[in-house]
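Customer escalation, tier 2.

The customer says the design service returned an amino acid string that "doesn't look like it belongs to this structure." They asked us to rerun it and document both sides in this ticket. The original structure tokens are below, unchanged.
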């Protein structure tokens, strides 16, 4: 009698073969693609392949994270002898809690779907047991551990399997691991300024606008925002088994910044002088615990927090659970032109993007090249948001370049998006197109010198290219990259005038067609009108951005 196949839950072994092994997900092949170059032809079940399912799951994770925060924050006050309010604890704890819930639910839902698909087939699974709790120095260390092959991730996936595996599976304990607590990062606090860490704002600009902010009369905070009723009831989406599992994970994974390091970080943040009613303008780094402690104190002291959009996708992609929790719920959110996003509450104030304003109409082509820009490809994604499964996304790259004419592809350079522990990008492209040059280093100077930009995802690079008036072609799976309802007509116009396509072959055919007359095609009035309308809504750039900012800040 033959043994059941082995279910691989993290990295595949050297003797992996589909006849004897089954990989739970694409992450099992990260770092081993040279050994198994055809791994992406295997079938993987993905419970969030459909965009609507990602949307529902993301909102449910928000609801559950807030429910668990409600259970925890009073206990944290008792434990540390403090009296902070919920808004403080939301700023401090929510980045860790929400990402823990999203990541663990992504794994839990995949294992559940795999068990259902497997039916009566039995599997052997090697699992490890954990001794004690898990030591993370802070939120950033926790995030890093989720994104890379490590003992914590192996244990988490295995512990999920242990809870969901049917009785006919053979679960084998192959070892015990201990991940001891480490020292919390309690370095001295930042200098808290009224304007700080705003993306693309120079230091001198921060100082000058900060001086202006200090002259604005102090005002009361607007009423606090909360989750919409639709989202708040979605906690019923989860089973009690998963909710109890989440509580256990919170106890085991709480970073040391909220345990042994809490008193030092809280005291350090408390030494800063905050002013009731003053504006604090920033682009939040939600993984920075030190900044989150200071943000919590500022909120509690009554400062009016104004968060600034730092990249593309916000306002036109859905869902964005991290933005809804970490950015939109503050007193104001400065956008690149848009004014609302479905299922997200916020006081949205459209203003010119500083980054895009610096590069407005900055296209100065000095070569005959095409720059093809990709995005990061994480095989096990941390968040549940608008990002689709990356296997089909990568296949579209090959389909696109295969469909190009020899003349056009000879002009192309490829820019990968480098992420640690992602599936292969540039190396994979060079397998099929060995002569294509790879572009590294700072992207924007390369964009501005190129004759044409190609993007296969609707995020930041697209906004940079269109606002700089660079001839641009985009293509992606429309059902894989869901758009906000308010954005659909703007993208439909881009598609109507031949800037955006819903399949790679059509995009390649268009480039081959227009290449000899690219500049005149791009400057045709209707196409320029559509481009400018899109930019006014989603990529606003203005040479006098600072004047518009000063006027708006004075009115907030």
């Amino acid at each position: 009698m033959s043994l059941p196949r082995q279910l691989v839950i993290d990295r595949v072994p050297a003797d992996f073969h589909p006849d004897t092994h089954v990989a739970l997900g694409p992450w099992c092949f990260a770092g081993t693609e040279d050994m198994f170059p055809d791994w992406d032809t295997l079938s993987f079940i993905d419970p969030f392949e459909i965009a609507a399912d990602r949307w529902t799951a993301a909102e449910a994770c928000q609801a559950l994270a807030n429910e668990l925060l409600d259970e925890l924050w009073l206990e944290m006050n008792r434990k540390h002898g403090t009296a902070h309010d919920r808004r403080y604890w939301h700023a401090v704890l929510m980045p860790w809690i929400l990402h823990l819930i999203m990541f663990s639910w992504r794994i839990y839902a995949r294992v559940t779907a795999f068990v259902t698909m497997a039916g009566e087939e039995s599997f052997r699974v090697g699992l490890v047991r954990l001794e004690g709790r898990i030591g993370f120095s802070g939120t950033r260390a926790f995030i890093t551990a989720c994104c890379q092959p490590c003992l914590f991730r192996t244990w988490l996936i295995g512990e999920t399997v242990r809870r969901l595996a049917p009785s006919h599976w053979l679960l084998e304990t192959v070892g015990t691991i201990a991940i001891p607590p480490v020292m919390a990062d309690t370095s001295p606090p930042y200098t808290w300024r009224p304007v700080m860490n705003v993306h693309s704002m120079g230091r001198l600009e921060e100082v000058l606008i900060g001086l202006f902010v200090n002259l604005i009369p102090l005002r009361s905070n607007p009423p606090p925002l909360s989750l919409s009723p639709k989202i708040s009831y979605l906690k019923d989406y989860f089973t009690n088994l998963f909710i109890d599992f989440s509580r256990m994970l919170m106890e085991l994974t709480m970073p040391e910044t909220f345990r042994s390091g809490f008193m030092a970080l809280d005291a350090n943040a408390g030494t800063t002088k905050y002013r009731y009613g003053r504006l604090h303008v920033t682009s939040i780094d939600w993984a920075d615990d030190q900044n989150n402690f200071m943000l919590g104190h500022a909120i509690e002291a009554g400062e009016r927090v104004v968060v600034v959009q730092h990249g593309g996708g916000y306002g036109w992609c859905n869902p964005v659970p991290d933005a809804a929790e970490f950015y939109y719920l503050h007193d104001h959110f400065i956008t690149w032109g848009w004014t609302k996003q479905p299922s997200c509450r916020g006081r949205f104030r459209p203003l010119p993007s500083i980054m895009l304003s610096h590069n407005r109409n900055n296209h100065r082509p000095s070569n005959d090249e095409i720059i093809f820009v990709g995005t990061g490809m994480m095989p096990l994604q941390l968040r549940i948001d608008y990002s689709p499964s990356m296997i089909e996304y990568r296949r579209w790259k090959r389909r696109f370049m295969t469909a190009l004419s020899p003349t056009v592809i000879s002009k192309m350079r490829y820019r990968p998006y480098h992420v640690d522990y992602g599936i292969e990008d540039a190396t994979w492209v060079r397998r099929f197109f060995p002569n294509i040059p790879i572009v590294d280093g700072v992207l924007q100077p390369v964009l501005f010198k190129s004759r044409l930009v190609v993007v296969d995802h609707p995020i930041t690079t697209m906004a940079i290219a269109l606002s700089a008036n660079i001839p641009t072609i985009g293509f992606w799976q429309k059902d894989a990259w869901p758009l906000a309802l308010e954005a659909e007509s703007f993208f439909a116009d881009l598609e109507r005038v031949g800037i955006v396509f819903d399949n790679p072959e059509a995009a390649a055919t268009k480039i081959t067609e227009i290449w000899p007359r690219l500049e005149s095609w791009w400057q045709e009035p209707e196409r320029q009108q559509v481009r400018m309308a899109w930019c006014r809504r989603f990529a606003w750039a203005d040479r006098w951005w600072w004047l518009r900012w000063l006027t708006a800040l004075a009115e907030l």
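Tier 2 assessment: The sequence is consistent with the input. The chain has a mean pLDDT of 93. The domain at 361-538 is CATH 3.40.50.2000 (Rossmann fold). Sent an explanation to the customer and offered a walkthrough call.
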